[in-house]
Amino acid sequence: MLEADKVMFEIYRDATYTGKYRVVYFTELGDTNKEWEINRAMAGEHFYDGFLKNWRKQEAKAVIDDFIRRLNDGERLTPQQLEERLKEFLPAGPQAEV
Fold first, then answer.
1. What is the pLDDT of residue 1?
2. What is the pTM of this model?
3. Residue 76, CB half-sphere, CA atoms under 13 Å: how many?
4. Are 11 and 49 in contact (CB under 8 A)?
5. CA 62 from chain center: how many Å?
6. Where are the domains positioned within the chain?
7. Measured in Å, how far apart are the chain's first and last C-alpha atoms?
8. Mind listing the pLDDT tens digit for each residue in 9-47?
9. Secondary structure (H, E, C), 8-51
10. Using CA of residue 28, residue 88, residue 62, residue 82, what is the dihedral sign?
11. Do 52 and 86 touch, CB atoms closer than 8 A?
12. Distances in Å between the alpha carbon of 43 and those of 13, 16, 36, 39, 46?
């Protein structure tokens, strides 16, 4: 799979402002918000990162949004549970760093 066929993302817990879980899709950032979003993610507490198949990214984003909502509602979930839910949207080969 070509690099252009993947969307790089990270889920993190905002450690400086709200304490809420957030996601950033690095490969979709524009020049105006790239530095701010990257710095915000780097300051947060890492939860999960990886790549999504570009052609199924909308479905994968819905799964991620639901997972983040559940985390922010206080449900205790693991990165492994997220990876299991995302497995059909992840490119083949080495996966995300957990």
1. 45
2. 0.85
3. 0
4. yes
5. 11
6. 3-89
7. 21
8. 999 999 888 899 999 999 999 888 899 999 999 999 999
9. EEEEEECCCCCCCEEEEEHHHCCCCCHHHHHHHHHHCEEEEEEE
10. negative
11. yes
12. 9, 7, 11, 6, 9
